[in-house]
Fold each of these.
Amino acid sequence: MTMTSETQTTVRVPQTPFAEFWSYFIQNRGALIGLCFIVFIVFLAVFADFVAPHHPHEQFRDFILVPPAWAEGGNAQFWLGTDGVGRDILSRLIHGARLSLLIGLVIVSVSLVLGICLGLVAGFFGGFVDVAIMRFADILLSMPALLLAIAIVAILGPSIVNSGLALSLVYLPHYVRLTRASVLTEINKDYVISSRVAGAGALRLMFIVILPNCLAPLIVQATLGFSNAILDMAALGFLGLGAQPPLPEWGSMLATAREFIQSAWWVVTFPGLIILMTVLAFNLMGDGLRDALDPKLKQ
Amino acid sequence: MSEQPMTQQSSETTAAKPPIMSGVGLKQHYPVKQGFMKPPGLVKALDGVNFTVEAGKTLAVVGESGCGKSTLARLLTMIELPTDGELNFEGKNLLTLDRETRKELRQRIQIIFQNPYGSLNPRKKVGSILEEPLVINGKLTKAERKERALNLLQKVGLKPEHYDRYPHMFSGGQRQRIAIARGLMMNPKVVVADEPVSALDVSVQAQVLNLMMDLQQELDLAYVFISHDLSVVEHIADKVMVMYLGKVVEYGATEDIFTHPQHPYTRALLSSTPRIDPEHRIDKIRLTGELPSPLNPPSGCAFHGRCEFANERCKVETPVLKDQSGESSVACFGIDENRLPYINR
Amino acid sequence: MTETDKSLLVVNNLSVAFGTKDNPFKAVDRVSFHVEQGEVLGIVGESGSGKSVSSLALMGLIDFPGRVTADELRFKTTDLQTLNEKARRKITGDEISMIFQDPMTSLNPSYTVGNQIMEAIEVHQGGSKKERQAKAIDLLRQVGIPAPESRINNYPHQLSGGMSQRVMIAMAIACDPKLLIADEPTTALDVTIQAQIIELLLKLQREKQMGLMLITHDLALVAEAADRVVVMYAGQIVETGPASDIFKAPKHPYTQALMNSLPESSEGKDRLNALPGVVPGANDRPQGCLLNPRCPYVTDRCRAEEPEQYGPRGRQVKCFYPLDEAGRPTV
């Protein structure tokens, strides 16, 4: 920690793993744009109460289906226009961001945590446990994702919590497989064996020794999974199985706007656009993360 | 360092010193699936190996890949448990002890791996890599652990500021020093070194070997030094054990093995090792063929297919290593029958 | 010039740089050597010495962002630098061949051994399938593979490391090259197999009067196998000369230190004469002579200036104070 070493040993300035990762990450312009957009959306979501011009549920009876402010007949009060019952679309989108991001976060966290645990157990213990967990994952994977989610929601009843649960279960096998594969490549490395020689128990080996070295692909998968979760949640919402009205969720906003597709384009376009942009941003960032984390893995 | 010649001499006379670690009839057999509907095969990675290690001494285990030397390393450190045999440490059979005592004694046997790039957890700082064994086993406080880690860093020739760095910031030689320091954290009596310098450059290799020899003197460590590089073994070992296909074929004091190799395989190994000084070279014995498959080892002496002195008996009967308590021992019918031309004693 | 005309390969001031233009890292720095027909040239150095990069540069295998420059890069009478891609490929398959360290990954696992050898023959010599098969079997026999008729139908995973390396050699000599570059050909193999492979290489080299460039980190191997030796350190050649001279009386402190650090050079259980420090990396190359932080005989001049490589063509050294016969610096 003394400064004298630099002159003596001429060792290059040590870079923390994060600094190294960051220097790779910012080289990828797409990823950076994605990150900026996500930060922006998160900001909107967090401060929705202050940013949104109106309450998302407030119905302006005199202003039903007002076009966006710049279009003919638009009203400066409602930038992106109003929907069929006179609610401000911009405000609903901003509050919807809160809901969509939260759902995405919950779904990804639940499936990630469960997936990591199952994958670690499967990869670490092997044998019967491994077979049991992996066949279960295979069964889940063999069904079309959305169909499975619909089936589960149909059983549990349509609600935002239930559809979140259903989607978590649907994504689970991806994380299980990914974790197990990384565990299998790491488990025979010498550093794991030397921890074992030092007397480390199973839990320590799994979570403290091995897991940090498996995280890179999982982080990437989770980022990409985030966009999937938002997309599928929107799909469920569109089918009326997700968020129930009047909750301002992007997918259900699209669904209720179906009837205006011909007459009032803005009611459909803006929720669709924001879903597209958010998903794109997450995908760009996921790609950037993968590129930035990969050279580290190869080293 | 001035004490070294003395300890060397004295140990030669005190042959009665009990070994710190020994193995009796160690066997490790792995079942191998040979495909659908076929009966599983059996790979005898180790097939009845005896050895002894004395405190403060180095036993080298020499052989080519597939001879079972790495399996032996895994057994000694109890990463794997043997199929059969005894493993004694300080007079107690580790394999029959209860869990707690075994765990206690196990810490006294540590291992250093060949590849310094794989043996350190890339996501942990050097400090926490070193302290891990203490965190798991010890009752030391955080400050005490750090003190011990810094102490050992210095002992292996690294600096205190390296404590907070990650493994990828170090060269191969420095990483191997870190690995050695980690091995020493629990005050081991025996260090199993599995090809510790094979992955290093020549000049760095010498630094690490010197370090290992210094530490041996200072801490009275016993090394089980596993290597395929005979010139390194000649330098560091007190006793040498030559293995071929899971069996010990020759065992003896380093000097005897290197000046009078008896088993044809030992001799072939020695003559295949390149030497800079023409005077160190001995007549080339080029082995024909390669190591037989351990799944389907030849009958009789496993070496007979590659041995120019083999006769009918070698193909049928299996020679055994006679006596390991003596200075040297060899498993070869050619010596019993006195038909090896290079032995003129 | 009459002397150079006979040379199979002449390399003059070859440099390979990576990194940015402003801050280039010279993996190979002004390296000059030559290979005569029918001789074994050993190139020896530690990792990071640039020995492998130089051979890749010769073969035209350095991709962007690596930049290769040279004053002269001549094979027999052909200037390799002015050749277009296609002509160069023709030469580097027909007349210069290369063997790599890891035989297991050098063979394509999806094709049989025979297939891969026959492909090598087809690309450069053509011939009917039958002729090529006969040639492949003959090649396998030449490299000492038992029962070559059945072996050509094996896939690489069915061969051991030694066998795979023999197959690589068979492919390398398929077109009767004049120069064979072997980059650490035995590092991945066991000692007894290493001895077999080296013996095979030397036998083929003698029979076919090839030039053989043996690139390795193993000094003792070079001492036994090579006629002439080039010692490299941190991208530069520090010493060249006949193997017998170099290993009897090295002139460069680095060569001497390398030899002294071998366990073979010290008696009994004494400490080894280790060279302190490590080979400098990309960002920490010192001023002056690159060895100066590690050199036992360093002077102020070594820290300030970089010595030139000098001496007669066959015996050069890059040091201000080359060692005398007794191994002492000539100050």
Amino acid sequence: MSENKRKGKHLLLGQLFRNRNREVDLMIEEQIQSPGRMMLDNFLHNRLGMIGLIGFLAIFLFVTIAPHFVPIDLGQSDATQTNIPPTTSMMKLPDGLKNNVQAIAPGPTFGVGCDKDGNIYTWGYTKITDKIDIKNIPDKVKDSKIVDVAAGYDHIVALDEDNDIYVWGNTRLGQDRIPTELKTGRHGRPDIIQIEAGYQMSGAVTADGRAYFWGNSNMTDIDVKKDLQGHIKKIAIATYNYICLLDDGSVAYGGLQKTNAFTNIPANLKSGVVDIAASGDTMAAVTEDGKITVWGNITHHENEIPEFDSKPVEIYGGRYHYTALMENGDVISWGGNDHNQATVPDSVNTTDIETVYAGFYQNYAVTKTGSVETWGLKGHPLGTDDLGRDILTRIIHGGKTTMTVGAIAEIISIIIGVVLGALAGYFGGKTDLIIMRISEIIGGLPFLPFALLLSAIIGTRIDVQLRMYLIMVVLGLLSWTGICRLIRAQILAEREKEFVIAAQAMGVKEHTIIFKHILPNVMSILLVQATLGFATCMLTESSLSYLGFGITPPTPTWGNMLTGANNSIVIQQYWWRWVFPASIFGICTICINLMGDAIRDAVDPKSLGR
Amino acid sequence: MRKYILKRLVYLVVVFFIVSLLMYCLYNLIPSDPARDQLEAMKSTLTPQAYQEMYQELRQQMGLDDPIVVRYARWMGLIPGLKGKFDGLLEGNFGYSQYFKKPVIDVVGPPMQTTIFINIFATILALGITIPLGIYCAVHKGGKIDNFTQVFTIIGYSIPVYIIALVFIFVFAVLLRWFPVSGMNTPGANYTGFRAFLDRLYYMALPLIVMTFGSLGGMTRYVRAAMIDALSMDHIKTARAKGVKEKTVIYSHAWRNALLPVITLIISWFLGIFSGSVIIENTFNINGMGSLYIKGLNNHDYELALAIQMFYTIVSLVGALIMDLSYGLVDPRVHVDK
């Protein structure tokens, strides 16, 4: 018996792939199998079909499960993260810097640091434009002993032991116009105690309490009030503004702007301030009594300081987050956490931290033993698009949208097609005529222009969610004709069979006959049609979205992620913006079609080999 | 046969009117107000009351407040227009394009030529490849080339055409630099005659290749399936048994029988690419009907869009008619007039 079974299986396999002419034992050939069992066996033994099924299931599970772990912020756009190629090396310290850190400055997508021997290193994605690359460190910088570095949005400032300042990167807007006072000074070259960099501008503080700023002053407030000069101990630069810590322990707004979000300094910062820091749009200060005060344009919960039991001594600002170092060597982070930059790993708080370098979305904590712990934005595994959105996140959520729209549109079209097809096929006569004429007209209409028109009627002014549902309905309404015709033909064939006549003779209600007696017989063909139709619906949705008439951004779909990819710059330079969405979408539809073909072969053995 | 053609023609006309009425109603669903658009420029110079008066007057003039069926009949040219003349679609007035500030008929000329050119060219190319390939695969069923084609065609018909376009642009235009990325002709060069044709062909080459490639998958499979069906018929066995040459069996006995489903395919596919070339034209920035249609929809130029929509509709209706009639021509067994 088991011998027979094995042979039977072998036969099935053989029938599917090769050896179709081999002579077989009559007993095995005639072995009876239930049709369902046979279909399943046929399907399971179809190699391509199984590949399709596994591939589809993998992608399906990926886009249904992953969105729960990778949340998406639809309104997100980040000018500092645009068009970054796939990389995860934004926090990967070079070997020379490990255990030998003098200073680190995190930039938007890159890092720069110097070791205790005065060598300088860069890492991460260092290209600013086609021509400008932070990695190209000037020879002068390489030859001198660097003691401090600062990173702006697109330029780097470095200080060497002779108090020489170097700037490289984007210098088109005067980022390298270092004030002459810093070069010569009235009383000889001054000692520089701090360098900082912001948006297209930089600043330096000298040992005699003076601050100097240079760079693009059109958008930034980088003048210094005269009466502050000589008393400045430290500066903190936000995107366009700065504050300074004075020698009497108070905080002052240094620029000349009369009122902005930062000029109104909180009252408790008149004295006793230990440290100051700035994020992109807020300022923060730590006072002697261990309190942290944050003011400015709070956008990312920068003022929601977590509870702590030690006393903060130093504070550092990223783009949307703050990190504070405690007296006991602990570290806390808070604020914007979309890249995990405010989630301090446990390993950091089990070791004693010497100091922290924070900036943009990265944190580097140097331990007392000299090793470096990092947390924050590692990079984007599949790159980012023109608005700085992570491609991987958008692929995950786009897949969810595309599949949902495709599935629901297909379900709608199946429902319409089955109901109308069943009615037409069973009743015949006038019903049949009317339904078939309607289906002929709708099926004969040019599909894509008609879909575009319906999408234009829906308009873009309505709610995004509602528009998505309406697009599903439109796709469903336009694609039921094929199923309708198929079901009608099947029912016409089934209607004449004896069991229907018997049912009619017994007085079974007509809709029961249609939907309970006849429909189960055409179920298998429906399954094939549904699978292939699902892929078609996904294709249509993506084509519409690609043309800008389907699901509109910011909601991602695999189709609208490719909108605007048809120019040579995107195709060549920003290849990650189209290669990844296109590949996963292509693989997905191929898998569904392989699966559909395999189901058809399994259901209808006559079609084998077509 | 003549009676059948006549019947089909009447049916076609009826369907045309139903569809055009449907389209006209749909376009009227799009929120827009031509009267307000026309007055928009003068709005700042008028008092609100005068504006309102002029607006109502203009609405009256344009006949915007009439019932939709009346407006449809006027647009179609079935009843006299507002100026007392029959002046509608049937009289050759396709409307006025607000976006181009020209009659629609003057706008659609060159794009229509382009679209018809690329579609017919792509059809010829695709048929030239798929029919021999499909026949070869059917005859050598299960062979290496057949298996390869089977897998390859699944990929071909699964991937949307704009992804194929992106890949082809990347490979042929960006990497190999054989073809231009997009456009219609060399900017600034005023070629004439044959030179202009060559230049046009150079720019159209990549879109044509993509269109052809995109249709290879589905069509090859279809031709192959039709041919396998035809080859499994009894009369093929008879012919072989009689010792008819294999070539004759395939190309005369089998192919004639496979032609019927293939013709259905060719025509429906031809209609499909007509509307499908919207995507190609948009991707390659070709000034064709499809990109014009999208321009019309995006710029709320609905008279233009409606005219193009009617073009697509007529193409598909005529296509369906040709499909029906060709059955009788190809296969004498089919009596279409029954």
